[in-house]
Design a protein that fits this description.
The structure is a single chain. This protein is mainly α. The protein has a domain of 117 residues. Helices cover 60% and strands 0% of the residues. It has 17 helices and no strands. Helix 3 runs parallel beside helix 6, helix 4 packs across helix 12 and helix 9 crosses helix 11. It is globular, with a radius of gyration of 20 Å. The protein starts with 7 loop residues before the first helix and ends with a helix. One of its GO terms (molecular function) is oxidoreductase activity, acting on paired donors, with oxidation of a pair of donors resulting in the reduction of molecular oxygen to two molecules of water. One of its GO terms (cellular component) is membrane. Keywords: Membrane, Transmembrane, Transmembrane helix.
């Protein structure tokens, strides 16, 4: 049963729940195959509905139609975009072609080609990096002052403008300046929330893929801005497009706020401690499927079984919850809703946040 719980005293013991780890490993072996028959319809359907919504948001004959279109676009393009998380974990031969089709249909038009997440996201799963200053996706937000939470959300709200500038301006400039290239890769090429994280230059086959994706995103960004400048795309339609991309980024940032408890201040944690610092929001609540789709409502479970595809996580959760029961370490990472998690984070920040 999902419920709120305080894991601080459990964390302090620095332990590993070996029974839980072994059971999770066994289920990983059973459920590690991604199913193309689920991935393709889910992704393509989400993208199609999202772009239909975007069309009506940009060209609807009334404000009611435009707002309805925008709501549909945000919901479904957000879902389609979050397949980027699956791309970072799946074996390419499980769903052939998915990575490139995703980039062409969603990653590039939404200004988040998959290289911005690939390679670095797996560092967030590293036992020696998670929760430390070398983790690109971790900040001890629960230990920071409330203004940092406001800043955290403001960054997402400006994200569509920032990504447009990155690909339309910095990408071309980086072709003529090695220094701009190094800085662009290090500081402006990763979906990271850790401001001290610096990315290394890509190498090998990944470097080739990166160049293809970045070229596509740069040409898209320059093309869109040019079309707006010469009047092919109306300014109001362009602003609606940017707003919808920004809204999806804000929604993802809200999800990120509650993906972890954010209570670790740089220590190396065991796998169990990483799990307890992470969050599941399982059924019976249904809203989690909207704000944390594509398996991300099982984010703590994902840290136990990172190679298990999103469509198998509900069954893995059901089995682990049934085996270990209420009050177990597995149960302690399960929470009932977004509202309670946000309240917990804000209360922790207000009462104990440190200056940053």
């Amino acid at each position: 049963m999902a419920r709120m719980t305080d894991v601080t005293s459990t964390k302090a013991k620095a332990f590993e729940d070996n029974d839980l780890i072994r059971e999770a490993a066994a289920l990983t072996r059973e459920f590690s195959i991604a199913k193309p028959g689920i991935y393709w319809p889910d992704f393509l359907g989400s993208a199609l509905v999202g772009y239909i919504g975007l069309y009506f948001a940009m060209s609807g004959s009334s404000l009611v139609i435009q707002f309805a279109g925008a709501a549909i676009a945000i919901t479904f393009l957000y879902r389609a975009a979050l397949f980027i998380h699956e791309i970072t974990h799946m074996k390419r031969d499980h769903v052939p072609g998915f990575r490139w089709v995703w980039n062409f249909l969603v990653g590039i038009p939404m200004l988040i080609p998959s290289f911005t997440y690939e390679d670095t996201h797996n560092q967030h799963h590293s036992k020696m990096r998670y929760g430390t200053d070398r983790d690109p996706e971790y900040l001890p937000l629960a230990l920071m002052k409330p203004h940092m939470l406001v800043f955290f959300m403001a960054v997402a709200a400006l994200g569509s403008i920032g990504f447009l500038f990155r690909f339309a301006v910095l990408s071309p400039l980086s072709l003529i300046s090695p220094w701009i290239r190094r800085e662009t890769v290090a500081r402006f090429s990763t979906l990271s929330i850790n401001p001290s994280y610096r990315r290394a230059l890509p190498e090998g086959e990944f470097r080739r893929d990166w160049i293809i994706m970045e070229t596509g995103a740069s040409l898209w960004s320059i093309g869109v801005l040019t079309a707006v400048a010469i009047g092919w795309i109306p300014l109001n339609a362009f602003l609606i497009y940017l707003t919808i991309v920004a809204a999806a980024l804000v929604l993802n940032q809200v999800r990120t706020l509650v993906a972890h408890l954010w209570e670790n201040d740089g220590e190396v944690l065991s796998v169990t401690e990483q799990y307890l610092d992470s969050v599941n929001v399982p059924p019976p609540g249904i809203m989690g499927e909207f704000w944390a789709p594509v398996g991300l409502r099982y984010h703590a479970l994902h840290h136990l079984v990172p190679s298990v595809p999103y469509h198998a996580l509900p069954e893995v959760h059901r089995r682990l919850a049934s085996k270990f029961g209420d009050g177990s370490n597995y149960d302690k990472a399960n929470y009932p809703n977004l509202r309670g998690l946000l309240a917990r984070l804000v209360a922790s920040s207000v009462s104990g946040g440190k200056s940053s």
